[in-house]
Every structure is written in C-alpha cells, then in structure tokens.
TrEMBL record:
GO terms for molecular function: sequence-specific DNA binding. It holds the Pfam family AsnC_trans_reg. InterPro entries: Dimeric_a/b-barrel (IPR011008), Tscrpt_reg_AsnC/Lrp_C (IPR019887). This is AsnC-like helix-turn-helix protein. GO terms for biological process: response to amino acid. It comes from Kutzneria buriramensis. Residues 6-76 form the Transcription regulator AsnC/Lrp ligand binding domain. SUPFAM superfamilies: Dimeric alpha+beta barrel. PANTHER family: LEUCINE-RESPONSIVE REGULATORY PROTEIN, TRANSCRIPTIONAL REGULATOR AZLB. GO terms for cellular component: cytosol.
Amino acid sequence: MITAIVLIQATAESIPEAAQAIADIDGVQEVYSCAGDVDLIAHVKVAKHEDLAELVPGRISKVPGVLNTDTHIAFRSYSRRDAEESFSIGLD
C-alpha cells in the first residue's frame, strides 16, 4: 500500500463541504481541517502509484472549492505502538 499526505488549500467558505466530499472519495482514509498554511489535510492509502496519480489530480483537485494540493508520499511509518512492540519481543 502507498500512503500519502495531501495538503489542500481551499476557499474559506467551502471548507466543510470540500472536506466531506474529499472524505467520501475511495482511497481517502481521513480528512482534517486545520489552521496554518493549508486548510485541509487528507490521509490517503492506495494500492499503486497509478491510483495516487488518478486520485489527487483526477478527484481531489476537482472537488469544488479546492484551490491547490501538495502531495507527500510516505516511505515508512513510525508509532509508539511499533516501538513498544519491538521492545516486548521475547519477553512473554
């Protein structure tokens, strides 16, 4: 699976509707509204790069109110749970 974070700029008046429309797109896991340089952040998971190439410019960018997207592909994920599991190996 390919994980990507999509930073989205949208018109202020369209943020709630755009966020929900993006959240309803297959491959989008979650959408967050936020403060700062971007208005929305979408967490995306797809099977292959071609799916990502279709999803962002083909679907997300075409949602009414979306002005710009900036996509970041994740190489690896880290979490507290991963660290805790690695230290508990063989302790049972």
